Amino acid sequence: MRNYTFRPVTEADLPLMRRWLDTAHVKVWWPDADKQITLIENDMDNPKINMQVVSLIGQPFAYLYDHDVRAFNLPQFADLPHGTRAMGTFVGDNDFVGQGHSVAYIEAYVRNLRVKHPMVAAGPGTTDTRTITIYRQARFMNRRLATTREGRLVQVMTHL
């Protein structure tokens, strides 16, 4: 088992986050790096959301966040039980893409979340088949298709 570490995103991480958001494989699903950086900056002190930098042997390579499903009034998660956490993530460092790290660190993070929360959910876009496959490998199950406030169709997935 790999020893992943998770630490809160800080202002010092913003240049790294910017580099990651500018990589081609991240831009596809997390467009508009300026908007994403602004959202991250605005939420850094928000107690409703946990934003983490994922590292392996001291090397940061991914971003992950989680929040209560009711914290941001997201319709795709409205039917989930109270206390459920929603999460999202991306691998920013190209050297870590395609090596199984996503599945492994998601499993490690979810294991910790499940100690205090009844369920963990994710909502990747329905055309993001790679991410859907990664969540399935991390033992998430398809729950239903749903539409976001912005009109995007997502695959709601849950880890029980």
From TrEMBL:
Keyword Transferase set for record: yes
SUPFAM superfamilies: Acyl-CoA N-acyltransferases (Nat)
Record bears the keyword Ribosomal protein: no
Domain of life: Bacteria
One GO MF term attached to the UniProt entry: N-acyltransferase activity
Keywords: Transferase
InterPro entries to which the protein is assigned, alphabetical: Acyl_CoA_acyltransferase
Protein name as annotated: Aminoglycoside 6'-N-acetyltransferase
Lineage of the organism: Bacteria, Pseudomonadati, Pseudomonadota, Alphaproteobacteria, Rhodobacterales
